[in-house]
Design a protein that fits this description.
- By secondary structure, the protein is α+β, with helices and mostly antiparallel strands.
- The protein has one domain: Roll (Nuclear Transport Factor 2, Chain: A).
- It contains 5 helices and 8 strands.
- Strands 1, 2, 3, 4, 5, 6, 7 and 8 form an 8-stranded mixed beta sheet that branches.
- The longest helix has 26 residues.
């Protein structure tokens, strides 16, 4: 292990605070329906950034940005349909004021483990995720319980910690009000929300099963690997692909 001077230790303590704040701001952005801004606000400007979800990886800046841009399109469409459904309650609201109406995503990141490289150029962290999401479907708003992990490779870029690789995996992603071992309920479509049936987020450009969500007969599934002390990024594993 490298020995650090008191000033270096103080700087590394400040870096940990900054990294925790990045993840806290992302959690807050999800809560206020600003998750479409995550790429622009928190990702590195490098071309080799990566986002990993349960069903695969979005590899490269264009793919990652495309995913978050599509989240914004989904929120915009959902907001417009809800506004039409409730004209009296939402009358006079601007498009910006309506953005995200009727939906909430509560994804707190907690119990962090953070390791900063000895060379101070990169860092790694893993967080538990426990919360719920609500999305508009063709049958109306449907809420799911979410339990999983956020695992991140950070890079120090122009004096700020930015995301190089983000792995956001849900161990449980199941409809609220239904036992995790029970099948989810089917709801009748609502004609006013029919356009949601046609909307689909872009598929990962590296499709694969990164993690299966829980089901009673699922094989034993491991969580993402915890960060370990390391000297340089070349000496450790990556949360990307």
């Amino acid at each position: 292990m490298k020995e650090f001077t008191p000033m270096e230790l103080l700087e590394r303590l400040e870096w940990r605070r900054e990294i925790r704040n990045v993840m806290g701001r992302i959690s807050h952005d999800y809560a206020i329906k600003q998750e479409a801004q995550v790429y622009d606000r928190y990702f590195s400007r490098r071309e080799d950034v990566c986002l990993g979800l349960n069903n695969g990886y979005y590899k490269g800046a264009a793919a990652v940005k495309g995913y978050y841009d599509a989240l914004g399109e989904e929120i915009r469409l959902s907001s417009a349909l809800i506004a039409k459904m409730f004209p009296r309650e939402l009358e006079g609201k601007t498009e910006d004021e309506l953005y995200g109406v009727g939906m909430i995503s509560y994804l707190p990141f907690e119990s962090q483990v953070i390791e900063i490289a000895d060379d101070g150029r990169t860092a790694k962290g893993i967080w538990n995720v426990r919360g719920s999401t609500s999305r508009l479907t063709a049958a109306g708003p449907v809420a799911n319980w979410i339990f999983g992990w956020a695992a991140v490779d950070f890079v120090l870029e122009d004096g700020e910690w930015k995301i190089l690789n983000l792995l956001l995996l849900y161990n449980v992603d199941h409809q609220c009000g239904v036992g995790f071992t029970e099948p989810e309920k089917d709801f009748e479509p609502v004609p006013e929300f029919a356009p949601m049936a046609e909307f689909h987020l872009p598929e990962p450009n590296v499709p694969m099963t990164v993690m299966e969500t829980f089901r009673p007969d699922r094989p034993r599934t491991r969580s993402p690997r915890c960060p370990e002390p390391y000297a340089t990024f070349a000496d450790t594993f990556s949360y990307g692909i």
